[in-house]
Design brief:
Elements lengths: L1 H13 L2 H18 L6 H12 L4 H26 L8 H12 L3 H25 L1 H9 L3 H19 L3 H15 L2 E2 L6 E2 L13 H19 L19 H21 L8 H18 L10 H16 L1 H7 L5 H12 L8 H4 L1 H22 L3 H5 L6 H20 L2 H20 L4 H23 L11 H30 L1
Helix pairs in contact: 1-17, 2-3, 2-4, 2-17, 3-4, 3-15, 4-5, 4-6, 4-13, 4-17, 5-6, 5-13, 6-11, 6-13, 6-17, 7-14, 8-9, 8-12, 8-21, 8-22, 9-21, 10-19, 10-20, 11-12, 11-13, 12-13, 19-20
Protein name: Tripartite tricarboxylate transporter permease
Organism: Saccharopolyspora cebuensis
Pfam families: TctA
Length: 501
Protein backbone atom coordinates (compact mmCIF):
# COMPACT_ATOMS: atom_id res chain seq x y z
CA UNK A 1 0.00 0.00 0.00
CA UNK A 2 2.92 2.33 0.78
CA UNK A 3 4.31 1.70 -2.69
CA UNK A 4 1.01 2.70 -4.29
CA UNK A 5 0.82 5.85 -2.19
CA UNK A 6 4.38 6.87 -3.04
CA UNK A 7 3.86 6.12 -6.72
CA UNK A 8 0.66 8.19 -6.85
CA UNK A 9 2.54 11.04 -5.20
CA UNK A 10 5.20 10.68 -7.86
CA UNK A 11 2.59 10.89 -10.60
CA UNK A 12 1.17 14.06 -9.00
CA UNK A 13 4.63 15.64 -9.21
CA UNK A 14 5.51 14.30 -12.68
CA UNK A 15 2.21 15.41 -14.23
CA UNK A 16 2.66 19.08 -13.41
CA UNK A 17 2.71 21.14 -16.64
CA UNK A 18 6.42 21.97 -16.41
CA UNK A 19 7.59 18.42 -15.67
CA UNK A 20 5.29 16.99 -18.34
CA UNK A 21 6.75 19.43 -20.86
CA UNK A 22 10.29 18.53 -19.82
CA UNK A 23 9.52 14.82 -20.27
CA UNK A 24 8.09 15.52 -23.73
CA UNK A 25 11.14 17.57 -24.72
CA UNK A 26 13.42 14.81 -23.46
CA UNK A 27 11.64 12.09 -25.47
CA UNK A 28 11.70 14.20 -28.65
CA UNK A 29 15.38 15.17 -28.28
CA UNK A 30 16.38 11.61 -27.40
CA UNK A 31 14.59 10.22 -30.45
CA UNK A 32 16.11 12.86 -32.73
CA UNK A 33 19.65 12.23 -31.49
CA UNK A 34 19.16 8.46 -31.45
CA UNK A 35 18.67 8.31 -35.21
CA UNK A 36 22.14 9.80 -35.84
CA UNK A 37 24.78 7.07 -36.25
CA UNK A 38 27.35 7.06 -33.47
CA UNK A 39 25.46 9.31 -31.07
CA UNK A 40 22.58 7.70 -29.17
CA UNK A 41 21.15 8.16 -25.70
CA UNK A 42 24.46 8.39 -23.83
CA UNK A 43 25.70 11.21 -26.07
CA UNK A 44 22.35 13.00 -25.84
CA UNK A 45 22.33 12.80 -22.04
CA UNK A 46 25.95 13.96 -21.90
CA UNK A 47 25.18 17.00 -24.06
CA UNK A 48 22.06 17.95 -22.08
CA UNK A 49 23.45 17.51 -18.56
CA UNK A 50 25.00 21.02 -18.43
CA UNK A 51 21.70 22.55 -19.58
CA UNK A 52 19.70 20.79 -16.87
CA UNK A 53 21.71 22.42 -14.08
CA UNK A 54 19.49 25.49 -14.52
CA UNK A 55 16.44 23.38 -13.69
CA UNK A 56 15.11 22.02 -10.44
CA UNK A 57 16.54 18.53 -9.72
CA UNK A 58 13.20 16.75 -10.21
CA UNK A 59 12.53 18.35 -13.60
CA UNK A 60 16.14 17.82 -14.69
CA UNK A 61 16.10 14.07 -14.05
CA UNK A 62 12.64 13.66 -15.58
CA UNK A 63 14.01 15.27 -18.74
CA UNK A 64 17.14 13.09 -18.72
CA UNK A 65 14.99 9.96 -18.30
CA UNK A 66 12.93 11.03 -21.32
CA UNK A 67 16.13 11.46 -23.33
CA UNK A 68 17.25 7.99 -22.24
CA UNK A 69 14.05 6.30 -23.44
CA UNK A 70 13.80 8.35 -26.63
CA UNK A 71 17.40 7.63 -27.58
CA UNK A 72 16.91 3.88 -27.18
CA UNK A 73 14.02 3.91 -29.69
CA UNK A 74 15.55 6.47 -32.05
CA UNK A 75 18.43 4.15 -32.82
CA UNK A 76 15.96 1.60 -34.21
CA UNK A 77 14.61 3.98 -36.86
CA UNK A 78 17.68 4.15 -39.08
CA UNK A 79 18.48 0.54 -38.17
CA UNK A 80 15.24 -0.53 -39.83
CA UNK A 81 15.19 1.93 -42.72
CA UNK A 82 18.87 2.06 -43.68
CA UNK A 83 20.58 -0.83 -41.87
CA UNK A 84 22.47 1.85 -39.94
CA UNK A 85 21.73 1.61 -36.19
CA UNK A 86 21.86 4.89 -34.32
CA UNK A 87 23.52 3.02 -31.44
CA UNK A 88 24.85 -0.43 -30.64
CA UNK A 89 21.68 -1.53 -28.82
CA UNK A 90 19.81 -1.41 -32.16
CA UNK A 91 22.18 -3.80 -33.95
CA UNK A 92 19.94 -6.83 -33.47
CA UNK A 93 16.88 -4.91 -34.71
CA UNK A 94 18.70 -4.01 -37.93
CA UNK A 95 19.13 -7.63 -39.01
CA UNK A 96 15.48 -8.38 -39.74
CA UNK A 97 14.07 -4.85 -39.65
CA UNK A 98 16.07 -3.72 -42.67
CA UNK A 99 14.99 -6.80 -44.61
CA UNK A 100 11.37 -5.98 -43.80
CA UNK A 101 11.92 -2.44 -45.12
CA UNK A 102 13.35 -3.75 -48.38
CA UNK A 103 10.25 -5.91 -48.81
CA UNK A 104 8.01 -2.84 -48.54
CA UNK A 105 7.10 -3.41 -44.87
CA UNK A 106 8.98 -0.51 -43.30
CA UNK A 107 5.90 0.95 -41.51
CA UNK A 108 5.10 -2.45 -40.01
CA UNK A 109 8.68 -2.85 -38.79
CA UNK A 110 8.66 0.64 -37.24
CA UNK A 111 5.24 0.09 -35.65
CA UNK A 112 6.38 -3.27 -34.26
CA UNK A 113 9.48 -1.56 -32.90
CA UNK A 114 7.66 1.26 -31.10
CA UNK A 115 4.98 -1.06 -29.66
CA UNK A 116 7.70 -3.46 -28.52
CA UNK A 117 9.51 -0.55 -26.87
CA UNK A 118 6.28 0.44 -25.13
CA UNK A 119 5.48 -3.10 -23.94
CA UNK A 120 9.01 -3.81 -22.73
CA UNK A 121 9.42 -0.42 -21.10
CA UNK A 122 6.06 -0.47 -19.34
CA UNK A 123 6.48 -3.97 -17.92
CA UNK A 124 9.99 -3.06 -16.83
CA UNK A 125 8.70 0.09 -15.11
CA UNK A 126 6.27 -2.04 -13.13
CA UNK A 127 9.16 -4.34 -12.21
CA UNK A 128 11.27 -1.36 -11.17
CA UNK A 129 8.55 -0.04 -8.85
CA UNK A 130 7.37 -3.29 -7.28
CA UNK A 131 10.30 -5.69 -7.67
CA UNK A 132 13.29 -3.42 -7.07
CA UNK A 133 14.46 -5.24 -3.88
CA UNK A 134 14.60 -8.60 -5.69
CA UNK A 135 16.45 -7.17 -8.71
CA UNK A 136 18.96 -5.34 -6.53
CA UNK A 137 19.59 -8.52 -4.57
CA UNK A 138 20.06 -10.45 -7.80
CA UNK A 139 22.64 -7.89 -8.99
CA UNK A 140 24.56 -8.05 -5.70
CA UNK A 141 25.06 -11.82 -6.08
CA UNK A 142 27.09 -11.40 -9.26
CA UNK A 143 30.87 -11.63 -8.94
CA UNK A 144 33.74 -12.05 -11.42
CA UNK A 145 32.90 -15.72 -12.14
CA UNK A 146 29.25 -14.87 -12.92
CA UNK A 147 30.17 -11.97 -15.19
CA UNK A 148 32.61 -14.15 -17.13
CA UNK A 149 30.00 -16.90 -17.51
CA UNK A 150 27.50 -14.33 -18.74
CA UNK A 151 29.95 -12.96 -21.31
CA UNK A 152 30.74 -16.50 -22.47
CA UNK A 153 27.02 -17.20 -22.99
CA UNK A 154 26.78 -14.02 -25.06
CA UNK A 155 29.75 -15.12 -27.19
CA UNK A 156 28.20 -18.51 -27.89
CA UNK A 157 24.77 -17.01 -28.53
CA UNK A 158 26.06 -14.63 -31.18
CA UNK A 159 28.70 -16.87 -32.75
CA UNK A 160 26.77 -20.14 -32.85
CA UNK A 161 23.09 -19.20 -32.64
CA UNK A 162 22.65 -15.81 -34.30
CA UNK A 163 25.14 -16.62 -37.05
CA UNK A 164 24.00 -19.16 -39.66
CA UNK A 165 27.50 -20.69 -39.90
CA UNK A 166 29.39 -21.59 -36.73
CA UNK A 167 32.76 -21.23 -38.49
CA UNK A 168 31.98 -17.76 -39.77
CA UNK A 169 30.47 -16.83 -36.42
CA UNK A 170 33.63 -17.86 -34.54
CA UNK A 171 35.77 -16.03 -37.11
CA UNK A 172 33.75 -12.86 -36.64
CA UNK A 173 33.95 -13.21 -32.85
CA UNK A 174 37.73 -13.58 -33.07
CA UNK A 175 37.97 -10.36 -35.11
CA UNK A 176 35.88 -8.56 -32.49
CA UNK A 177 37.99 -9.85 -29.61
CA UNK A 178 41.16 -8.77 -31.44
CA UNK A 179 39.80 -5.25 -31.87
CA UNK A 180 38.68 -5.16 -28.25
CA UNK A 181 42.14 -5.80 -26.76
CA UNK A 182 43.85 -2.96 -28.64
CA UNK A 183 45.27 -0.33 -26.29
CA UNK A 184 46.84 -0.24 -22.84
CA UNK A 185 46.20 -3.23 -20.59
CA UNK A 186 44.47 -1.81 -17.52
CA UNK A 187 46.14 -4.26 -15.12
CA UNK A 188 49.72 -4.35 -16.38
CA UNK A 189 49.96 -0.99 -18.18
CA UNK A 190 51.44 -2.65 -21.26
CA UNK A 191 50.47 -1.33 -24.71
CA UNK A 192 48.96 -4.08 -26.88
CA UNK A 193 48.57 -4.13 -30.67
CA UNK A 194 48.93 -0.36 -31.03
CA UNK A 195 51.39 -0.61 -33.98
CA UNK A 196 53.44 2.10 -32.31
CA UNK A 197 50.66 4.69 -32.66
CA UNK A 198 49.82 6.89 -29.66
CA UNK A 199 46.27 7.29 -31.01
CA UNK A 200 45.55 3.63 -30.26
CA UNK A 201 46.72 3.70 -26.63
CA UNK A 202 43.14 4.33 -25.48
CA UNK A 203 41.89 1.49 -27.66
CA UNK A 204 39.27 1.52 -30.39
CA UNK A 205 36.02 2.86 -28.97
CA UNK A 206 32.73 1.06 -29.37
CA UNK A 207 31.35 4.13 -31.16
CA UNK A 208 34.07 3.92 -33.82
CA UNK A 209 33.54 0.18 -34.36
CA UNK A 210 29.75 0.44 -34.44
CA UNK A 211 29.68 3.40 -36.81
CA UNK A 212 32.39 1.97 -39.05
CA UNK A 213 31.01 -1.53 -39.38
CA UNK A 214 27.33 -0.69 -39.63
CA UNK A 215 27.16 2.80 -41.16
CA UNK A 216 30.17 3.23 -43.44
CA UNK A 217 30.33 -0.48 -44.16
CA UNK A 218 26.74 -0.36 -45.41
CA UNK A 219 27.47 2.74 -47.50
CA UNK A 220 30.45 1.06 -49.17
CA UNK A 221 28.51 -2.15 -49.70
CA UNK A 222 25.60 -0.35 -51.36
CA UNK A 223 27.95 1.79 -53.47
CA UNK A 224 29.87 -1.26 -54.68
CA UNK A 225 26.70 -3.14 -55.62
CA UNK A 226 24.69 -0.17 -56.88
CA UNK A 227 23.64 -1.87 -60.09
CA UNK A 228 22.28 -4.97 -58.44
CA UNK A 229 20.57 -3.43 -55.43
CA UNK A 230 17.05 -2.15 -55.44
CA UNK A 231 16.90 1.63 -55.23
CA UNK A 232 15.45 3.09 -52.03
CA UNK A 233 13.01 5.28 -53.92
CA UNK A 234 11.63 2.18 -55.65
CA UNK A 235 10.73 0.46 -52.37
CA UNK A 236 7.08 0.76 -51.47
CA UNK A 237 6.17 1.82 -47.95
CA UNK A 238 3.25 -0.60 -47.74
CA UNK A 239 0.26 -0.62 -45.41
CA UNK A 240 0.76 1.83 -42.52
CA UNK A 241 -0.52 -0.27 -39.61
CA UNK A 242 -0.17 -3.76 -38.17
CA UNK A 243 -2.78 -6.33 -39.11
CA UNK A 244 -4.25 -8.89 -36.74
CA UNK A 245 -1.95 -11.64 -37.96
CA UNK A 246 1.10 -9.43 -37.41
CA UNK A 247 -0.05 -8.51 -33.91
CA UNK A 248 -0.52 -12.21 -33.08
CA UNK A 249 2.94 -13.03 -34.39
CA UNK A 250 4.50 -10.18 -32.39
CA UNK A 251 2.67 -10.60 -29.07
CA UNK A 252 4.67 -13.50 -27.65
CA UNK A 253 8.03 -12.15 -28.95
CA UNK A 254 7.27 -8.86 -27.17
CA UNK A 255 6.74 -10.74 -23.91
CA UNK A 256 9.70 -13.09 -24.39
CA UNK A 257 12.00 -10.20 -25.25
CA UNK A 258 10.84 -8.32 -22.17
CA UNK A 259 11.48 -11.35 -19.96
CA UNK A 260 15.00 -11.74 -21.35
CA UNK A 261 15.83 -8.05 -20.99
CA UNK A 262 14.59 -7.56 -17.40
CA UNK A 263 17.48 -9.16 -15.47
CA UNK A 264 20.19 -7.67 -17.70
CA UNK A 265 19.38 -4.10 -16.73
CA UNK A 266 20.39 -4.82 -13.14
CA UNK A 267 23.90 -6.11 -13.91
CA UNK A 268 26.84 -4.29 -15.53
CA UNK A 269 27.41 -6.77 -18.34
CA UNK A 270 27.34 -4.91 -21.62
CA UNK A 271 24.08 -2.97 -21.57
CA UNK A 272 21.30 -3.89 -23.98
CA UNK A 273 23.40 -5.69 -26.57
CA UNK A 274 23.37 -9.11 -24.87
CA UNK A 275 19.59 -9.43 -24.28
CA UNK A 276 18.73 -8.08 -27.73
CA UNK A 277 20.88 -10.69 -29.46
CA UNK A 278 19.76 -13.44 -27.10
CA UNK A 279 16.12 -12.64 -27.85
CA UNK A 280 16.86 -12.55 -31.58
CA UNK A 281 18.56 -15.94 -31.40
CA UNK A 282 15.67 -17.41 -29.40
CA UNK A 283 13.07 -16.23 -31.89
CA UNK A 284 15.13 -17.59 -34.77
CA UNK A 285 15.35 -21.02 -33.15
CA UNK A 286 11.63 -21.07 -32.33
CA UNK A 287 10.74 -20.07 -35.89
CA UNK A 288 12.85 -22.87 -37.33
CA UNK A 289 11.23 -25.35 -34.98
CA UNK A 290 7.80 -24.26 -36.20
CA UNK A 291 8.95 -24.87 -39.76
CA UNK A 292 7.80 -21.54 -41.25
CA UNK A 293 10.73 -19.28 -40.51
CA UNK A 294 10.97 -15.95 -42.33
CA UNK A 295 14.32 -15.11 -40.78
CA UNK A 296 16.74 -13.96 -43.43
CA UNK A 297 13.82 -12.51 -45.43
CA UNK A 298 12.42 -10.05 -42.90
CA UNK A 299 10.76 -11.74 -39.90
CA UNK A 300 8.61 -9.48 -37.75
CA UNK A 301 9.55 -11.54 -34.67
CA UNK A 302 13.16 -10.45 -35.23
CA UNK A 303 12.10 -6.83 -34.66
CA UNK A 304 9.54 -7.32 -31.88
CA UNK A 305 11.69 -9.29 -29.44
CA UNK A 306 14.95 -7.26 -29.58
CA UNK A 307 13.15 -3.93 -29.17
CA UNK A 308 11.17 -5.18 -26.19
CA UNK A 309 14.38 -6.52 -24.64
CA UNK A 310 16.14 -3.23 -25.37
CA UNK A 311 13.69 -1.00 -23.55
CA UNK A 312 13.06 -3.37 -20.66
CA UNK A 313 16.81 -3.35 -19.99
CA UNK A 314 16.83 0.45 -20.18
CA UNK A 315 14.17 0.87 -17.48
CA UNK A 316 15.60 -1.74 -15.12
CA UNK A 317 19.08 -0.17 -15.35
CA UNK A 318 17.77 2.62 -13.09
CA UNK A 319 17.33 0.14 -10.21
CA UNK A 320 21.02 -0.37 -9.40
CA UNK A 321 21.67 3.31 -10.13
CA UNK A 322 19.09 4.59 -7.65
CA UNK A 323 19.28 1.79 -5.09
CA UNK A 324 23.02 1.05 -5.09
CA UNK A 325 24.69 3.99 -6.84
CA UNK A 326 25.93 1.42 -9.39
CA UNK A 327 25.76 2.49 -13.06
CA UNK A 328 25.27 -0.42 -15.47
CA UNK A 329 25.70 1.51 -18.73
CA UNK A 330 27.38 4.62 -20.11
CA UNK A 331 24.13 6.58 -19.87
CA UNK A 332 23.46 5.69 -16.23
CA UNK A 333 27.10 6.57 -15.44
CA UNK A 334 26.46 10.05 -16.83
CA UNK A 335 23.26 10.30 -14.78
CA UNK A 336 25.23 9.28 -11.68
CA UNK A 337 27.52 12.24 -12.32
CA UNK A 338 24.47 14.48 -12.64
CA UNK A 339 23.20 13.32 -9.23
CA UNK A 340 26.57 14.13 -7.71
CA UNK A 341 26.54 17.59 -9.30
CA UNK A 342 23.32 18.25 -7.41
CA UNK A 343 24.95 17.10 -4.18
CA UNK A 344 23.11 13.74 -4.07
CA UNK A 345 24.60 10.29 -3.76
CA UNK A 346 22.42 7.49 -5.22
CA UNK A 347 22.06 4.55 -2.88
CA UNK A 348 19.65 3.11 -0.30
CA UNK A 349 19.47 6.45 1.54
CA UNK A 350 18.37 8.26 -1.62
CA UNK A 351 14.85 6.83 -1.26
CA UNK A 352 14.68 8.35 2.23
CA UNK A 353 16.46 11.67 1.70
CA UNK A 354 15.09 12.47 -1.79
CA UNK A 355 11.94 10.33 -1.89
CA UNK A 356 9.86 12.88 -3.79
CA UNK A 357 12.46 13.13 -6.56
CA UNK A 358 12.90 9.34 -6.85
CA UNK A 359 9.20 8.54 -7.06
CA UNK A 360 8.55 11.41 -9.49
CA UNK A 361 11.36 10.01 -11.64
CA UNK A 362 9.87 6.50 -11.51
CA UNK A 363 6.42 7.86 -12.40
CA UNK A 364 7.93 9.78 -15.32
CA UNK A 365 9.13 6.47 -16.79
CA UNK A 366 5.52 5.43 -17.37
CA UNK A 367 4.72 8.85 -18.83
CA UNK A 368 7.76 8.74 -21.11
CA UNK A 369 6.71 5.33 -22.46
CA UNK A 370 3.25 6.63 -23.30
CA UNK A 371 4.70 9.73 -24.98
CA UNK A 372 7.09 7.52 -26.95
CA UNK A 373 4.19 5.45 -28.26
CA UNK A 374 1.93 8.43 -29.03
CA UNK A 375 4.65 10.41 -30.81
CA UNK A 376 6.24 7.66 -32.88
CA UNK A 377 3.46 5.22 -33.80
CA UNK A 378 1.53 7.67 -36.05
CA UNK A 379 4.78 8.72 -37.73
CA UNK A 380 5.80 5.23 -38.87
CA UNK A 381 4.64 5.85 -42.49
CA UNK A 382 6.38 9.25 -42.46
CA UNK A 383 9.68 7.74 -41.33
CA UNK A 384 9.26 5.03 -43.98
CA UNK A 385 9.27 7.70 -46.70
CA UNK A 386 12.97 8.22 -46.02
CA UNK A 387 13.41 5.21 -48.28
CA UNK A 388 12.16 7.28 -51.22
CA UNK A 389 15.02 9.79 -51.02
CA UNK A 390 17.62 9.58 -53.80
CA UNK A 391 20.33 7.11 -52.90
CA UNK A 392 23.31 9.45 -53.36
CA UNK A 393 21.75 12.01 -51.02
CA UNK A 394 20.70 9.43 -48.47
CA UNK A 395 23.98 7.56 -48.13
CA UNK A 396 26.09 10.71 -48.38
CA UNK A 397 24.16 12.03 -45.37
CA UNK A 398 24.78 8.76 -43.52
CA UNK A 399 28.52 9.01 -44.20
CA UNK A 400 28.61 12.61 -42.97
CA UNK A 401 26.65 11.94 -39.78
CA UNK A 402 28.67 8.80 -39.12
CA UNK A 403 31.93 10.73 -39.36
CA UNK A 404 30.56 13.52 -37.16
CA UNK A 405 29.33 11.01 -34.60
CA UNK A 406 32.76 9.38 -34.40
CA UNK A 407 34.54 12.74 -34.21
CA UNK A 408 32.24 14.15 -31.52
CA UNK A 409 33.05 11.35 -29.06
CA UNK A 410 36.64 12.52 -28.45
CA UNK A 411 37.00 15.44 -30.91
CA UNK A 412 39.87 13.52 -32.53
CA UNK A 413 40.52 13.23 -36.28
CA UNK A 414 42.23 9.90 -35.63
CA UNK A 415 38.81 8.44 -34.80
CA UNK A 416 37.54 9.52 -38.23
CA UNK A 417 40.47 7.67 -39.84
CA UNK A 418 39.70 4.61 -37.71
CA UNK A 419 36.04 4.77 -38.74
CA UNK A 420 37.07 4.66 -42.39
CA UNK A 421 39.37 1.68 -41.75
CA UNK A 422 36.70 -0.21 -39.79
CA UNK A 423 34.16 0.71 -42.50
CA UNK A 424 36.39 -0.95 -45.08
CA UNK A 425 36.57 -4.01 -42.81
CA UNK A 426 32.78 -4.01 -42.58
CA UNK A 427 32.52 -3.92 -46.37
CA UNK A 428 34.89 -6.89 -46.72
CA UNK A 429 32.96 -8.88 -44.09
CA UNK A 430 29.71 -8.24 -45.95
CA UNK A 431 31.24 -9.36 -49.24
CA UNK A 432 32.53 -12.59 -47.71
CA UNK A 433 29.33 -13.39 -45.82
CA UNK A 434 30.86 -13.05 -42.34
CA UNK A 435 28.22 -11.84 -39.82
CA UNK A 436 28.76 -8.49 -38.09
CA UNK A 437 26.98 -9.16 -34.80
CA UNK A 438 29.73 -11.40 -33.29
CA UNK A 439 32.34 -8.76 -34.19
CA UNK A 440 30.47 -6.09 -32.26
CA UNK A 441 29.75 -8.36 -29.30
CA UNK A 442 33.45 -9.29 -29.18
CA UNK A 443 34.48 -5.63 -29.09
CA UNK A 444 31.92 -4.73 -26.42
CA UNK A 445 32.22 -7.75 -24.12
CA UNK A 446 35.80 -8.87 -24.84
CA UNK A 447 37.45 -6.44 -22.38
CA UNK A 448 34.80 -7.22 -19.75
CA UNK A 449 35.30 -10.97 -20.11
CA UNK A 450 39.10 -10.60 -19.89
CA UNK A 451 38.90 -8.37 -16.82
CA UNK A 452 36.47 -10.59 -14.93
CA UNK A 453 38.41 -13.75 -15.82
CA UNK A 454 41.57 -12.20 -14.39
CA UNK A 455 39.75 -11.16 -11.24
CA UNK A 456 38.26 -14.62 -10.77
CA UNK A 457 41.64 -16.30 -11.26
CA UNK A 458 43.24 -13.87 -8.80
CA UNK A 459 40.60 -14.73 -6.19
CA UNK A 460 41.15 -18.45 -6.78
CA UNK A 461 44.96 -18.09 -6.86
CA UNK A 462 45.14 -19.55 -10.35
CA UNK A 463 42.71 -22.43 -9.76
CA UNK A 464 40.30 -22.59 -12.76
CA UNK A 465 37.69 -24.38 -10.63
CA UNK A 466 36.91 -21.01 -9.06
CA UNK A 467 34.83 -20.34 -12.16
CA UNK A 468 32.44 -23.13 -11.05
CA UNK A 469 32.28 -22.40 -7.32
CA UNK A 470 29.23 -20.19 -7.59
CA UNK A 471 25.83 -21.91 -8.07
CA UNK A 472 24.80 -19.13 -10.46
CA UNK A 473 27.91 -19.59 -12.61
CA UNK A 474 27.55 -23.37 -12.55
CA UNK A 475 23.91 -23.03 -13.61
CA UNK A 476 24.92 -20.73 -16.48
CA UNK A 477 27.52 -23.21 -17.73
CA UNK A 478 24.98 -26.02 -17.51
CA UNK A 479 22.55 -24.03 -19.63
CA UNK A 480 25.35 -23.26 -22.08
CA UNK A 481 26.30 -26.92 -22.46
CA UNK A 482 22.65 -27.88 -22.89
CA UNK A 483 22.19 -25.29 -25.64
CA UNK A 484 25.34 -26.46 -27.44
CA UNK A 485 24.19 -30.09 -27.23
CA UNK A 486 20.78 -29.20 -28.64
CA UNK A 487 22.38 -27.22 -31.47
CA UNK A 488 24.69 -30.12 -32.29
CA UNK A 489 21.81 -32.61 -32.40
CA UNK A 490 19.71 -30.33 -34.59
CA UNK A 491 22.54 -29.77 -37.06
CA UNK A 492 23.29 -33.50 -37.27
CA UNK A 493 19.61 -34.15 -38.01
CA UNK A 494 19.64 -31.44 -40.67
CA UNK A 495 22.69 -33.03 -42.32
CA UNK A 496 21.08 -36.47 -42.32
CA UNK A 497 17.89 -35.06 -43.82
CA UNK A 498 19.88 -33.28 -46.52
CA UNK A 499 21.85 -36.46 -47.27
CA UNK A 500 18.68 -38.51 -47.61
CA UNK A 501 17.13 -35.89 -49.86
Amino acid sequence: MDTWTLLLGGFAEALTPLNLLLCLVGVVLGTAVGVLPGLGSSMAVAMLVPLTFRLEPTGAFIMLAGVYFGGQFGGATTAILLNTPGQSSSMATAQEGFLMARRGRAPQALATSVIGSFVGGTIACVAVVFCAPFLVGFALRFGPAEYFALALIAFVATAAVVADSAVRGVTALGIGLALGVVGIDQQTGVARYTLGSSHLLDGISVVVVTVGLLALGEVLHVAAGARGVQRPQDIGTGRPWLGRAEVRRSSLPWLRGTAIGLPFGAIPAGGSEIPTFLSLGLERRLARRRGRSEFGRGAIEGVAAPEAANNSTTAVSLVPLLGLGLPTSATTAIMLGAFQQYGMQPGPLLFQDEGELVWALLASLFIGNVLLLVLNLPFAPVWAKLLRLPRHHLYAAIAVFASLGAYSAKLALSDVVLVCAVGLLGYLLRRTGVPLAPVLIGVILGPLAEQELRRAMAVGQGDPLVLLDSPIAAGMYSVLLLVLAVLLVLRLRARRSATRA
